[in-house]
Amino acid sequence: MSDICKKTLSEVAAMLQTGEVKAVDAVTACLDRIKATEPQVKALITVLGEEALKQAEAMDEAGPRADKPLWGVPLVLKDLLAAKGTRTTCASKILDDFVPFYDATAVSKLRDAGAIIIGKANMDEFAMGSSTENSAYFQTRNPWDTDRVPGGSSGGSAATVAAGQCFAALGTDTGGSIRTPASFCGIVGLKPTYGRISRFGLIAYGSSLDQIGPMTRSVEDAARVLQVMAGHDPKDSTSVEIEVPDYLAALGRENLEGVTIGLPKEYWGEGLDEEVEVSLKAAVAKMEALGAKTVPVSLGLTDYAIATYYIIAMAEASSNLSRFDGVRFGHRNTEAEELIDMYTSSRTEGFGDEVQRRIIMGTYVLSSGYYDAYYNKAAKVRRLLREDFEKAFEQCDLIAGPVLPTTAFKVGDKVDPLQMYLIDIFTISANLAGLPGMSLPVGLGKTSAMPVGLQLMGPAFSEAEMLSVAECLERNIEPMGMPEL
Ligand code: GLN
């Protein structure tokens, strides 16, 4: 692996600014690394080789720009973020040939900051899944052990960063899809507060849950990428109009004195694999040694979170995905003779099994006969869940817990959809409550030798505090390094 690819985004961005590394060198190093590792990892649906090189050449000619914090930095996007003129599939056959004519706001902000997009990452179809096994194209593998899943749904984004193919990737998180693959692949993944980053140009799954976020090899890198993307956007009325703090300035604290960390008893009990528990407890002990105070808290409705999430997410998905009908968007069956046959056959051919399952269930919970029993009930539980967090945050600044009950499992291990839904137990509550959450790699599990991620969650818009605590911990634990590939 070229030395350039071993650098963090923050390091390479600084070297690009001084001219020590040229934009062409950075892009070439990444493209070489992609070539060498893609046969095993399969993280990317699209690689933008020539285009990226051309862009880098033009940028080198003009010279670095101090006002552009990501100048010359190669990045990858999850393939549900619209990138002008680039195929954007959502890992679905139904969008196989979809080429947006506009950039998502998050993407145009990255470009304005000087980033070079070099690829589009594989994912679970329409972001539905936790392992990237639901992609209509191929399965992405975990760079730490290619027999294992990278997590999902942003599994391609996590794998490309972990494998050193780029310096950061964007993922999206509806119920854990940034934090889960970040945890399984040993990288940093941050799901910001709902409304912190514009969702314009993000092809929606569950609109009231979806958030875009950075996936990187260090906390500082995540802060840099978040800084560029955060803020109100007139094109997304749910993006919040509150000031964006200086996330980088928040980093570098000496210790964790004055910080209170809540440990929810529902997250630290039964069901947690021993190796995960051991790694996480060591991380919490480290936080205490750094001066943090820990207190037990309770998120009593955790048991209901899965049912609540899957009702709401499927309901919203069934509505969002109705636009893919072969007329306005998406694959069309050209042989059907009647209109209704055309809709049915186009959608049957275009959507995979998991997506169809969710459209059916989502339509069911929204139907007039069952709306009150399911959707309405779920909306009420969601509000109570939010209150649970509010109460917990009266006692602590941040919450710490697992991201997942286990480390990355083997490809094909979880064939039953329900089994797959259950592993989201610790991540979905943050989405239901709209709160920020992140995964920080804290070590390799003793039995599996696979990465373990610690989850931090905080009150709305507490990203600066969360990043600063995470960076202090990161600096004080043994770095995990990169997988050998
Ligand atoms: N695993 C969850 C689901 O399938 C979360 C996915 C996500 O966050 N996009 O819905």
UniProtKB/TrEMBL annotation:
<feature type="active site" description="Charge relay system">
    <location>
        <position position="153"/>
    </location>
</feature>
<comment type="subunit">
    <text>Heterotrimer of A, B and C subunits.</text>
</comment>
<comment type="function">
    <text>Allows the formation of correctly charged Gln-tRNA(Gln) through the transamidation of misacylated Glu-tRNA(Gln) in organisms which lack glutaminyl-tRNA synthetase. The reaction takes place in the presence of glutamine and ATP through an activated gamma-phospho-Glu-tRNA(Gln).</text>
</comment>
<dbReference type="InterPro" id="IPR004412">
    <property type="entry name" value="GatA"/>
</dbReference>
<dbReference type="Pfam" id="PF01425">
    <property type="entry name" value="Amidase"/>
</dbReference>
<dbReference type="InterPro" id="IPR023631">
    <property type="entry name" value="Amidase_dom"/>
</dbReference>
<protein>
    <recommendedName>
        <fullName>Glutamyl-tRNA(Gln) amidotransferase subunit A</fullName>
        <ecNumber>6.3.5.7</ecNumber>
    </recommendedName>
</protein>
<dbReference type="GO" id="GO:0016740">
    <property type="term" value="F:transferase activity"/>
</dbReference>
<dbReference type="GO" id="GO:0050567">
    <property type="term" value="F:glutaminyl-tRNA synthase (glutamine-hydrolyzing) activity"/>
</dbReference>
<keyword id="KW-0547">Nucleotide-binding</keyword>
<keyword id="KW-0648">Protein biosynthesis</keyword>
<keyword id="KW-0436">Ligase</keyword>
<keyword id="KW-0808">Transferase</keyword>
<comment type="similarity">
    <text>Belongs to the amidase family. GatA subfamily.</text>
</comment>
<feature type="domain" description="Amidase">
    <location>
        <begin position="25"/>
        <end position="467"/>
    </location>
</feature>
<feature type="active site" description="Acyl-ester intermediate">
    <location>
        <position position="177"/>
    </location>
</feature>
<dbReference type="GO" id="GO:0005524">
    <property type="term" value="F:ATP binding"/>
</dbReference>
<keyword id="KW-0067">ATP-binding</keyword>
<dbReference type="InterPro" id="IPR000120">
    <property type="entry name" value="Amidase"/>
</dbReference>
<dbReference type="InterPro" id="IPR020556">
    <property type="entry name" value="Amidase_CS"/>
</dbReference>
<dbReference type="GO" id="GO:0030956">
    <property type="term" value="C:glutamyl-tRNA(Gln) amidotransferase complex"/>
</dbReference>
<feature type="active site" description="Charge relay system">
    <location>
        <position position="78"/>
    </location>
</feature>
<dbReference type="GO" id="GO:0006412">
    <property type="term" value="P:translation"/>
</dbReference>
<dbReference type="InterPro" id="IPR036928">
    <property type="entry name" value="AS_sf"/>
</dbReference>
